[in-house]
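Task: sequence design from structure.
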């Protein structure tokens, strides 16, 4: 059985993340979306809120077979403890590659070759998206309906104190 993990902060989950999740779940027998607890990073949503939003979104899209978990520590330690041999990393642009390559090489060295990294490029439709950009737009009461599912848009608007525009998810 080929198991993979897709680690990240997912603060919040975007359509770009969903694109990677869907495609990775088609490739691997088992996929875990791993919401990383990073005390050094200031998050808009709590880990619990992010897990709830991700699980709700996956269920709505028929991806209930994708697991969601949380972890504070190194992804390679989580993978070793759960017998996972592949880490999924999403690439939007060449600017992501240098950082992601460094993470991949570090994981390979420190896992003694037991953790491979698979890079998936985000579909062109979502190549511009990042959680940071979504939060920036939402903080100025901009329309993020093309960036995130409706339920997540609603949560963003609640955090920033205004109502959502109506659209289809």
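Answer:
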């Amino acid at each position: 059985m080929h198991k993979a993990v897709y680690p990240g902060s997912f603060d919040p989950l975007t359509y770009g993340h969903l694109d990677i999740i869907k495609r990775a779940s088609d490739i691997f027998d088992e996929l875990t979306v791993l919401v990383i607890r990073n005390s050094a990073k200031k998050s808009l949503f709590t880990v619990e809120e992010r897990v709830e939003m991700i699980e709700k979104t996956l269920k709505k899209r028929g991806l209930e077979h994708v697991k969601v978990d949380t972890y504070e520590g190194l992804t390679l330690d989580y993978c070793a403890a759960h017998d996972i041999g592949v880490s999924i990393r999403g690439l939007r642009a060449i600017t992501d590659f240098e950082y992601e390559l460094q993470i991949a090489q570090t994981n390979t060295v420190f896992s003694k070759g037991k953790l491979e990294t698979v890079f998936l490029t985000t579909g062109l439709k979502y190549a511009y998206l990042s959680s940071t950009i979504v939060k920036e737009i939402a903080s100025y009461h901009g329309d993020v309906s093309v960036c995130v599912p409706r339920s997540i848009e609603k949560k963003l608007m609640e955090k920033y104190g205004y109502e959502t525009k109506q659209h289809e998810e």
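The two ends are 33 Å apart (CA to CA).
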